[in-house]
Amino acid sequence: GIVNVQTIDSEFKNYSLQIFNVHGQSLDYFEKLHDAEYETYNLGNYESGVYFFQFTNGETTFLQKVVIVKE
Predict the structure, then answer these.
(1) Helices (H) and strands (E) in the chain — how many of each?
(2) Once rounded to an integer, what is the mean pLDDT over residues 6-23?
């Protein structure tokens, strides 16, 4: 599936995104280095489950839990 990320805070216009599974293993790494408000990630190869998206910009880190459900 496709995941769209919208950056509202101007501090997060450029960031890195690291995706972890529930065991803490890093699965993917992306860098967003342009000034777009939206970024699209294709996670169609991921199985159903719980993942953690870690967004980092300089000294600021934000962690978001994401649940993928495939039918």
Answers:
(1) 0, 6
(2) 82
